[in-house]
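tool=predict chain=A
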Amino acid sequence: QVQLVESGGGLVQAGGSLRLSCAASGRTFSSYAMTWLRQAPGKEREGVATIISGGSTYYADAVKGRFTISRDNGKNTVYLQMNSLKPEDTAVYYCKARAGGNDYWGQGTQVTVSS
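tool=predict ok
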């Protein structure tokens, strides 16, 4: 069982920055594939960024060049640095861990970008 706790959400003006954190339990965090997803009101949940155990990263086209996913295996934490935020980035952001063939989810953190 993997537990995930997100933090760092909040209200920011367009053009601003936020950094989300997701702290994970488990002794094999370095082997987890970690993904940030988001869900805006009335929309489907969508993938934002993924970082795999080897450190390779993948981004949705909508956030390329603005968001950066990273991980600190010593702290069992994955981060999402979000720059140049836009109102359309407003959503609940979720952290997901893929571990042992199973998916584990955090509770989500709200990000609101005002215009």
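The mean pLDDT is 96. The radius of gyration is 13 Å.
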